[in-house]
Design goal:
The complex is a heterodimer of chains A (620) and B (273). Chain A is an alpha/beta fold. Chain A has 25 helices and 13 strands. About 28% of the residues of chain A have low confidence. Classes of the chains: A alpha/beta (620), B alpha/beta (273). Chain A: It comes from Corchorus olitorius.
C-alpha cells in the first residue's frame, strides 16, 4: 500500500497530505530524501531508498518547476506498486490546476485524490490481468521505449518474484542505488534475472510487468507531452537499456550468446568475461564503452532534434520569443544548451559521468519553468548550473580541522588523520605540508610511517620530520601497517602529541589485498579523519578511484558501520591551469569536501579551495 | 554589372531625396543656437542648477529608502524551525507542518498579530533562508538589505548541534555586511514548549564558550578565501555577545504553539510600523 503522499512547496511548506493513509512514517524519510538526494543534485534518479530502524521505504518524486511544487510518494519497499509513477503524474496535473500561491489549505483535494488513486489502481490491475492472459509480443520497438523508471521497477518486481534468497542481493543493490553507481548495478541485476528466465514462468510474468509499466506510462502521459516525457529519464538511458535488454530477454544466459549480442565493439568480448568473473573489476571499462556509445547516439539525436526546429523557427520568431519570454521550457529546448554545457565541463576535465548526471539534474530542475523575458535559454541553463555547482562544492560539514583538533585535545586524545590514495599522488609530501601548517598554529604533531611497503618511504618521511623538527614513529618495513599505526597512536597519547598524521602506502583501488589492509588499518584505529589524496590531473579516473575506495572500505570492513572518506586533499593544483574539473568530480562522487589544495613544492604551498573561482573557471 | 549600375542609380536618387531634409535640419540647428544666445546666461545657469538638484534629490531619496529597509532574515541550522516560524508570523498557524526547505521563503506582509489593528502599518519583508549547509551561501544575497537577523536555534536538540550552530553564528557575526551595517541579531531559542528544552541563558553561555574556541582556531586559518573579514570580541577577554559591535539579544519562542511574541517585538523594534 501507499504509505504517504505529500505535496509541498520548494520552500518547505506541506500543502497537502493524504489523511486517509495517515500512517505515521518511521524516521523522517522525506527530510532525508531532500537532504541526501535532491539537494545533492541527484534528482535525475528514479527512486530513493530509505532505511531506518524497522522500516524501509521507497520514495518517488516529481517536480512542478513552474509552480515550485514537489510531489513525493512513499511506500514500503517490499511492495512493488506499479501505479505510483502514474498516480504522481495524475496528482501533479490535477493539483497544479487548483494551486494558488496564496492558499495553504487544500482540503477539497481529498476527494479528487481518492478518485485518482482508485483510477490508477484499477488501471494497474487491469493491465496485470490482461497481460497475464495475452502472451506478450517482445518486439524490439516496445523495448526501445521502455522508460528508466519503468525498467527499474521491472527489476524490482522480478526480484520480488524470485525466492527470498535473493533478498541479500537486493539490499546491496539498494545501497548501491543510493550511492549512484547505477551502471555497476545493472550488471549485477542481470544475474538474478537471467536465472529467473531460465527457471520458469513466474519470472516471465514479472518481466511482463515491466512492460506493463512502460505502456501504462505511455498511455497516461499521452497527447502532446509524450515525446518529452518518455525521454525524461535522459536520452542516454533508454539506449543503455536496449543494449542490455537484448542480452537479457532474447537470449539464454550462456556466455557464447552474450558475446554475440555485443557485436559493436571489439572489446565486448573481454568485458563480459570480466563481468562473469568479478563484478567489481571492469566497471570502469563498461561504463566508458556504454557511455561513449550512447553519447554518439545522443549526438545524432541532438542533431535530429535541432534541425527541424531550426527550419521551423526563423530568426524573427526566436527574437520575438526572447522578448516575450517563453511559456515553459521543455526538454527539447534545453537539450542543445545542456549539450554545450556538458562539453564545456568535459573540456575542463570533469569526468564524463559526472557531467552527464549534473546536466540531467539541471534539466530536471528547469523543465516546465517559465523563461523570463530578455533571457536566452543558454544563459538560464548556465545560471542554474552555476547554482548547482556552488551547492555541490560548498562543504556539507565543517572543514575547520583546527577546531576539531582542539576538541580532541580537550578529551585528552590525539587527533588522528590517515592519508590514503593511489600511488604517486603526493601523500607524503602533502602530509609534510599539513604538518607544517599545524605546527604554525602551535599544535604538536607526530608522524607515523605506516608505508611499510615501498622502499625509501620511511626515509622520505624521516627527512621531512627532521626538517620540520617533529617526532616520527617508525617500525621499519615488512610490518603490518595497522599495528604500526596503533602503536603510534599509543605513543602519541603517552607523549602528549595533539595530532598524529598517518602516512600509508599508495595503492591502486583495484588491489584487493592492499585495500583490505587499509580497511583493517582504519577499522582498528578509528581515525578522526580519513583524507583521500588525489591529484588534480586525474580525469575520468577520479570517479573510479573515489567510488572504489569508498566501496572497498565498506565491503572489506568488518564493522557494521564502516568509515568512509571524510575529506579530499587535491594535489598538483598548480599544474593544471584551468582544467579544474577533478575537484568537482571528486566532491560530487564522494560527497566529501575538498579540505586542502596542494599547489607547489614548498611547505607553504597548501591552500583552501576557493569555491567561487572554481565555479567561475568551470563555466568560463 | 547591370545590377551594380542599378544600385548606383538608386543611391543617387536617394541622395537627391535626402538633400532638402539636410537643409531643413541645419536651419533648425541654427535657430536653436540663436535662441540660446538670446537667453541671458543667468537663466541658463538656473535651469542647469534645477536639473542637477532634482536628480540629486531623487538619488538621495532612493538611497535613504534603502537604508531604512524592512527586511528581516530568518536563519539558522536545518531543522531548527525557521519555516514554521515564518508561517507562524505570517498566518498565525503552522498549517500541516513543514519539511526541509530547498528554496528561501519570502513574503511582504503585515504580521498576523497586528492584522486586526487599525491604521496604516508598514508591512515587513520576511525571508526564511534554508538552513541546509549546501544552501547557506544563499544567505549572502539577502544580508545587504537586512534590517535585522533572527538566528533560530533548536533549544530541544541543542547540545548535539551546539558546535555547528555556533560555527554558523560565528560566520554570520563576522560577515562584513553584518559588522559594517551593525545589523542587530536576535538569537531565538525555538521549541521551548517542550519540557526538556534548554533555557536561553544556558544556550547563551554554551554558544559564547564555543565561539571563544572558534575565535582561537579561525584566526589561525591561513590565506584562505573563506577567512572571515572581521574578528569577534576583545582580544584577551572571554567572548561575550555584548562585545559585538552590533546588538545581539536572545529570546525564547515556540513555533508550533505560536508563542512568537518576543520575535515580533524584535521585528517591530527594527521595522517601525
Amino acid at each position: 500500500m501507499l504509505e504517504q503522499l505529500l505535496i509541498f512547496t520548494r520552500g518547505g511548506l506541506i500543502l497537502w497530505t493524504c489523511k486517509e493513509l495517515g500512517n505515521a512514517l518511521k524516521g523522517s524519510p522525506i527530510d532525508t530524501l531532500i537532504r541526501s538526494c535532491l539537494l545533492e543534485e541527484h534528482s535525475g534518479a528514479a527512486s530513493y531508498n530509505y532505511d531506518a530502524a524497522g522500516a524501509s521505504y521507497t520514495l518517488k518524486w516529481t517536480f512542478h518547476n513552474e509552480l515550485g511544487l514537489v510531489f513525493v510518494a512513499v511506500y514500503q519497499r517490499i511492495l512493488h506498486l506499479l501505479y505510483v509513477d502514474d498516480l504522481l503524474a495524475m496528482v501533479k496535473r490535477e493539483f497544479s490546476e487548483i494551486y494558488d500561491p496564496k492558499r495553504t489549505v487544500y482540503n477539497d483535494f481529498d476527494e479528487t485524490f481518492r478518485q485518482l488513486r482508485r483510477e490508477a489502481e484499477a488501471r494497474a490491475d487491469e493491465f496485470k490481468k490482461s497481460k497475464q492472459m495475452v502472451k506478450p509480443v517482445n518486439n524490439s520497438k516496445k523495448q526501445g521505449q521502455v522508460q528508466k523508471a519503468g525498467f527499474d521497477k521491472g527489476n524490482k518486481k522480478s526480484e520480488g518474484g524470485l525466492a527470498a534468497d535473493e533478498d541479500d542481493g537486493d539490499k546491496v543493490k539498494g545501497r548501491k542505488f543510493e550511492n549512484g553507481y547505477s551502471n555497476g548495478n545493472r550488471i549485477e541485476i542481470e544475474e538474478p534475472r537471467m536465472t529467473g528466465v531460465v527457471n520458469g514462468k513466474e519470472n516471465t510474468s514479472s518481466n511482463i510487468s515491466a512492460f506493463d509499466v512502460s505502456k501504462l506510462q505511455k498511455r497516461t502521459k499521452g497527447g502532446k507531452k509524450t515525446d518529452t516525457d518518455v525521454n525524461k529519464g535522459s536520452k542516454a538511458d533508454p539506449k543503455k537499456k536496449v543494449e542490455k535488454k537484448k542480452r537479457v530477454w532474447d537470449d539464454a544466459p550462456t556466455e557464447t550468446k552474450l558475446d554475440y549480442t555485443d557485436p559493436v565493439d571489439g572489446n565486448g568480448n573481454e568485458n563480459i568475461e570480466v563481468v562473469a568473473a568479478d563484478q567489481g573489476e571492469s566497471k570502469m571499462d563498461i561504463d566508458e564503452i556504454i557511455s561513449s556509445d550512447s553519447e554518439d547516439e545522443e549526438d545524432n539525436n541532438v542533431v535530429n532534434d535541432s534541425q527541424p526546429e531550426a527550419k521551423k523557427k526563423g530568426w524573427f520568431s526566436s527574437m520575438f520569443q526572447s522578448i516575450a519570454g517563453k511559456a515553459s521550457l521543455e526538454k527539447a529546448d534545453l537539450e542543445p544548451a545542456l549539450k554545450a554545457l556538458k562539453d564545456r565541463l568535459m573540456t575542463k576535465n570533469v569526468a564524463e559521468e559526472i557531467a552527464e548526471k549534473l546536466c540531467e539534474s539541471v534539466a530536471a530542475s528547469l523543465e516546465g519553468k517559465k523563461l523570463a523575458s530578455f533571457t536566452r535559454i543558454s544563459s538560464t541553463v548556465q545560471a542554474a548550473m552555476e547554482e548547482a555547482l556552488v551547492r555541490i562544492l560548498t562543504p556539507r560539514r565543517s572543514i575547520d580541522i583546527l577546531r576539531d583538533v582542539h576538541a580532541a585535545k580537550e578529551q585528552r586524545k590525539p587527533y588522528v588523520v590517515v592519508f590514503v590514495g593511489v600511488n604517486g599522488v603526493g601523500k607524503s609530501t602533502n602530509l609534510a605540508k599539513v604538518a607544517y601548517w599545524l605546527l604554525q598554529h602551535n599544535v604538536s604533531v607526530m608522524m607515523a610511517a605506516c608505508d611499510t611497503f615501498r622502499s625509501g618511504a620511511v626515509e622520505q618521511l624521516r627527512t621531512h620530520a627532521r626538517r620540520l623538527q617533529i617526532p616520527i614513529f617508525e617500525k621499519g618495513y615488512e610490518k603490518d601497517p595497522a599495528i604500526v599505526a596503533k602503536e603510534a597512536i599509543q605513543e602519541a597519547t603517552r607523549n602528549g602529541s595533539d595530532v598524529v598524521l598517518v602516512d600509508t602506502a599508495g595503492r591502486m583501488q583495484d588491489n584487493e589485498p592492499l585495500m583490505r589492509a587499509l580497511s583493517k588499518l582504519i577499522y582498528l584505529n578509528n581515525p578522526d579523519l580519513v583524507l583521500f589524496v588525489g591529484e588534480a590531473l586525474v580525469g575520468n579516473d577520479a570517479v573510479d578511484q573515489l567510488s572504489k575506495f569508498n566501496q572497498k572500505l565498506v565491503d572489506l570492513s568488518s564493522s557494521p558501520t564502516p568509515r568512509l572518506i571524510d575529506g579530499i586533499l587535491l594535489t598538483k593544483f598548480d599544474t593544471i591551469d584551468d582544467k579544474v574539473g577533478a575537484a568537482l568530480s571528486m566532491v560530487y562522487i564522494s560527497g566529501a569536501p575538498v579540505m586542502f589544495v596542494g599547489c607547489g613544492q614548498s611547505y607553504t604551498d597548501l591552500k583552501k579551495l576557493n569555491v567561487k573561482s572554481i565555479v567561475k573557471t568551470l563555466l568560463k | 554589372m547591370e545590377v551594380m549600375e542599378q544600385w548606383k542609380d538608386h543611391l543617387e536618387q536617394l541622395k537627391i531625396q535626402l538633400e532638402p531634409w539636410k537643409n531643413q535640419l541645419e536651419q533648425w540647428l541654427h535657430q536653436a543656437i540663436e535662441y540660446l544666445n538670446q537667453i541671458p546666461p543667468i537663466q541658463l545657469y538656473a535651469a542647469v542648477a534645477v536639473l542637477v538638484l532634482t536628480t540629486l534629490l531623487l538619488l538621495s531619496i532612493r538611497l535613504f529608502k534603502r537604508t531604512k529597509s524592512n527586511t528581516i532574515v530568518l536563519t539558522g541550522l536545518s531543522g531548527s524551525g525557521k519555516t514554521v516560524l515564518f508561517y507562524q508570523l505570517r498566518d498565525g498557524s503552522s498549517h500541516h507542518g513543514t519539511v526541509t526547505s530547498m528554496e528561501p521563503n519570502e513574503g511582504t506582509f503585515v504580521l498576523n498579530s497586528e492584522s486586526n489593528k487599525k491604521g496604516k502599518i508598514k508591512p515587513v519583508h520576511l525571508v526564511d533562508v534554508p538552513g541546509h549547509s549546501r544552501l547557506q551561501p544563499k544567505l549572502d544575497e539577502f544580508l545587504p538589505q537586512a534590517a535585522g537577523i533572527v538566528f533560530v536555534v533548536d533549544a530541544l536538540e541543542f547540545l548535539p548541534n551546539c558546535r555547528l550552530a555556533s560555527e554558523y553564528l560565528y560566520d554570520l557575526l563576522t560577515k562584513a555586511t553584518v559588522v559594517k551595517k551593525k545589523i542587530p541579531v536576535l538569537i531565538c531559542c525555538n521549541k521551548t514548549d517542550k519540557v526538556t528544552a534548554h533555557t536561553k541563558e544556558f544556550i547563551r553561555k554554551q554558544m559564547e564558550k564555543e565561539i571563544e574556541k572558534l575565535r582561537a582556531s579561525r584566526s589561525a586559518v591561513s590565506d584562505a578565501d573563506i577567512s572571515n573579514d572581521f574578528t569577534l570580541g576583545v582580544p584577551g577577554e572571554a567572548f561575550a555577545f555584548t562585545q559585538c559591535r552590533n546588538k545581539v539579544t536572545i529570546a525564547e519562542a515556540s513555533g508550533l504553539t505560536g508563542e512568537v511574541a518576543q520575535v515580533e517585538q524584535f521585528i517591530r523594534e527594527h521595522v517601525k510600523p
